[in-house]
Amino acid sequence: METKDFIHRPKQGDLTRLEERLITYKGKEILVLRMKGYSSTFILVPGIVVESKTEVNEEGLPVSRVDRICTFLDHQEQKKLSEIILKEFNTTGYVNFV
């Protein structure tokens, strides 16, 4: 697995986090964010939660540890998960797995 830190920032550059949820898929907790850019909203999936907000960084922001989705799901499974996420958020558009 490829584990990385994810900092829970309310805003990053031109993007604003509108909502953050954990969605269970195949027994794993998936971190899902609904983000807003200049003219659109989209879904960002940082990964599978290994540790949820167990630390804070030097700015006082919570930090989670996540594994990349591609280490757990193939392309077809990512497509299925995208459909579930879009339905869960009652939106259309695309899901960006990072």
State the helicity in percent bands.
10-25%
The stretches of 5 or more residues where confidence is low (pLDDT under 50) are none
Mean pLDDT: 93
What is the succession of H and E elements? EEEEEEHE
Distance between the termini: 14 Å
Derived structural class:
mainly beta
From the alpha carbons, calculate the radius of gyration and give it in angstroms.
13 Å
Shape: globular
Tell me what portion of residues adopts beta-strand conformation.
Answer: over 45%
Number of strands: 7
Total of helices = 1
Number of domains: 1
Biggest sheet character: 7 strands, mixed
What does this structure look like?
Helix content is 14%, strand content 53%. The two termini are 14 Å apart. It is mostly beta strands and 98 residues long. It has one domain (3-97). The longest helix has 14 residues, at 75-88. Strands 1, 2, 3, 4, 5, 6 and 7 form a 7-stranded mixed sheet that branches.
